[in-house]
Amino acid sequence: MNDEIVYGKNPVFELLKSGNPVNKVLFLSDGPSGRNQDIISLLHERSIPYQFVDRQTLDRLTNRELHQGMIAYIAAREYATVDDILARAEERNEEPFILMLDEIEDPHNLGALLRTVDAVGAHGVIIPKRRSVALTGTVAKTSAGAVEHVLVARVSNLVQTLKELKKKGCWVSGAEAGGKEAFQSDLTGSRVIVIGSEGKGISRLLQENCDEIISLPMRGKVTSLNASVAGSVVLYEVLRQRNHSR
Description:
single chain, alpha/beta, Alpha/beta knot, elongated
């Protein structure tokens, strides 16, 4: 059994009432009724995603234990808000330095990036609520403890969040092929770095809302880098430039 899940109506309900962090809840696709409505109300209150799946999916996830049509995924830690991230920058008397991840699906990539974010002193990470890996136990383990120190905000709409950050003075650099070389770009000041998903890169709409597209030089035969590697290189270039601009 996956030790990151809780299943059964009462256990899930009590988990949600406790206020402990939850990534997502799965319901049997027959639809909510009775006690489930109380749970769905709690999910809305806490802005926790949920979805309906078939019985075979729930059976597989619980090794056919008695799940009563309900599974909750436990988060490795509580999520922050974007305002929390901006407040951390203000507390440090620093210009915001934020990493935004567009639908990263591999927990090892997210964990590695959290480790780098902590190492370079960035103020936080923003991920989408859907179509993205959440703060799972695997992410926590891969981060080597960084998950306890890095603020991670989970938002419903990355584009809208980006627009709000731009209104607050942040400049947005999206890391994607075909852009200006990152090492030749000015990455100082209030900065959001956007890294795309492992397969598709940054979505078109998100790219259109970046202020610039930056790229890493590729001198060998391989045409792309792992998302966590590319992200880490860019984050360290931001740190280098911030240090030199002081």
